[in-house]
């Protein structure tokens, strides 16, 4: 049997944000022809490209290099062809390249190392800044919606998003592919006149000590109900005057007719 394999990310380097106390995730997937196999019949191995005996992950921990013992974990479901790997306590020299190897437990022949698709790591310590979306101005007394989202590469430790303003916040998470995830928080609240010319801030907190800009701020401009009154009062006044003149004309004409 010939295996076919592909990484979710095809770049020469996998640009990984240190997302949780020097922890990263290498997302990958593989495929092979033939009948699908359950996870317990598939053996996943990660090894160094230059030496297949330098194993960084194996379900038998005694096979793993001493420098990687206790630091790597398979987080994908092999039965679903997900071979994603988590590396904890990442060191400066943990740059790879690393290669994935798959073996079927029920066969001595069905095995393959994908040395043509090895991956290297280039660390970026600065996390992404959150993005805040909202209208330039909101109406006093009417529901307003603010959206805040941030991209990250660490599905094991989703970041949290908090707001500087009270209201009802709803969180959602989505996989935007290629090893990236995006949590989004939607805040709903009723603006009051005291909110005018203030600002609202969304803060993202990653697991661990991740560096980078962690807030996004948006000004709040509230259109008050007094603006409507300034428009309605002259209109009502004009209609009232026209009605009064019309009634006077009606009575004058009626009197003369009599």
UniProtKB/TrEMBL annotation:
Name used for this protein in its record: Ig-like domain-containing protein
Chain segments annotated as transmembrane: 12-32, 231-253
Organism encoding this protein: Sinocyclocheilus anshuiensis
Assigned keywords, A-Z: Disulfide bond, Membrane, Transmembrane, Transmembrane helix
Listed PROSITE patterns: IG_LIKE
Ig-like domain boundaries: 130-217
């Amino acid at each position: 049997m010939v295996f076919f394999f592909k990484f979710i990310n095809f770049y020469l380097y996998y640009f990984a944000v240190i997302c949780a106390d020097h922890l990263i995730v290498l997302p990958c997937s593989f495929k092979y022809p033939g009948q699908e196999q359950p996870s317990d019949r598939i053996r996943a191995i990660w090894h160094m490209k230059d030496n297949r005996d330098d194993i960084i992950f194996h379900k038998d921990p005694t096979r793993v290099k001493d420098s990687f013992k206790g630091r790597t974990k398979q987080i994908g479901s092999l039965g679903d062809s997900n071979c994603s790997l988590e590396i904890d306590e990442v060191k400066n020299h943990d740059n790879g390249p690393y290669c994935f190897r798959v073996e079927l437990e029920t066969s001595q022949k069905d095995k393959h190392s994908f040395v043509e698709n090895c991956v290297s790591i280039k660390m970026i310590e600065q996390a992404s800044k959150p993005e805040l979306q909202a209208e330039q101005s909101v109406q006093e007394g009417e529901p307003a919606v603010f959206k805040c989202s941030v991209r990250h590469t660490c599905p094991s430790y989703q970041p949290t998003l908090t707001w500087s303003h009270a209201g009802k916040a709803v969180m959602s998470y989505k996989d935007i592919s290629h090893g990236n995830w995006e949590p989004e928080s939607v805040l709903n609240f009723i603006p009051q006149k005291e909110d005018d010319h203030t600002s609202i801030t969304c803060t993202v907190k990653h697991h661990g000590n991740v560096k980078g800009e962690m807030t996004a701020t948006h000004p709040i401009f509230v259109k008050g109900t007094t603006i409507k009154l300034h428009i309605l009062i002259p209109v009502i006044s004009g209609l009232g005057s026209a009605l009064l003149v019309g009634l006077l004309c009606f009575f004058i004409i009626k009197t003369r007719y009599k």
